[in-house]
Amino acid sequence: MKSALQFLGHWLLSLVALLSLTVFSFAQLADNSASPAPAKLRALILSGDGSHDWRTTTPFLKQLLLDSGRFEVRVSESPAGMTAKTLAGFDLVVDDYAGPRLGGEAEKALEGFVGAGKGLVVTHGGLASFSAQTGSPGFAKLTKATYSASPAVPQFHLFKLKTGHPEHPVMQGISANPRTGDRPRLGIKLSAEAMALASTEEDEPLLFASNSGKGRVFCTALGDELGAMQEKIFITTFLRGAEWAASGKVTLPSEMGMPTPDKNGARVLVIAGGHDHEAAFYGLFQGYKDIGWVPVSDSKLAFQEDIRLKYDVLVFYDFTRDLDEKSKKNLRDFVESGKGVVVLHHGILDAQKWPWWYEEVVGGLYRLERQGTIPNSTVKFGEEHLITPAGDHPITAGISPFHVTDETYKGLYISPNVKPLLFTDNPTSDRTVAWIGPCATSKVVYIQLGHDHSPFRHPSYRALVHNSILWCAGKLK
Ligand SMILES: [Zn+2]
What we know:
477 residues; Rossmann fold; 2 domains; eight-stranded mixed β-sheet; binds zinc ion
């Protein structure tokens, strides 16, 4: 249920945050597979005020830290109340707070924290607190930097960073003079004790580091807003800076960017078309590192070639009345080669004249027409379901009974050889609403639910689809 809960959280966030976070939740930014993972560093992000858009930047930074695999993260949106006790359990403070001065006790607590050997990272937003007029003298002391009274504010532009100190742990292995797009904070003056790790062509410091007492401080003037925060050099230096500040060492790789799914993720082809559906459907496949890039095709195109070597699982969310002989052969070859098939919702209408498909593979069919004395199946929109797992199966492991509003189907042909996965209490539906198909060669799952956003955003439905794909791909034990 972890991934389901994670997704519930994501749905509650703004659209921008949603997109970034779902993409980032499958990040495996650090490859520590060779050695046992070191203990996680505990980070506290200060946020919650000021002219910078902390409502989007803080969740993004939090997700970056989490996805690096190196950090546990908490966020404080009222850092003014911070005391030495608040900070006691942490290794790192990330200052993304751009509001008024925190006040004596909080500032003293932070100085004491760093001085005692812990780490501080100050973000582009957090650097706002360094203004010469309103900034805290303690912060200037901590970061060995001040911020001029009326700094020049550049337009967003592409530029090269001039690398200084390539031997510094944060910069080691990072290619020299990387390019980025940003609206960096300018007008920062460093004292002699601070190291400029990267600057503009005009030697304005952009990344800088210093020691403070026994602790370490890393500051970044990059990352003006979410767009600039997608840049590889921002992500790499922020995370490595955070690791260095927190621990004095850097183990994270020298190039980290927008994550990609794991190379060995399930290879899924979605068959859509022939039936209208909400674009939100495709969100079901986002946010998992164990599912690769997911292409979408229709049945006419998809099976014109042998797809056995290309995909592990086909997901049917289409309405295909019939297939030509070539398509039938390629689909049959795929199924007989021991691959996976997941059929969702109206995919049960497919191939009405191909008994092999609905009797032996899927084990079900929505009867569009009366068959002798058997009436056609029926559909009803907007019905309430109480869904209950039918027994123990890896696909439903961890899924409790759940309540969802969805379209119901009743009077389907259902093979006596299916293994039920889910039941509903709704009388306008057949009782079994998900099952393992009778297919002897491939793993096959049908889930009746899935008409619109109501199930698409339900964490249990998302988990069911995710688990079904993994199980059909042989990746869920
Ligand atoms: Zn529907």
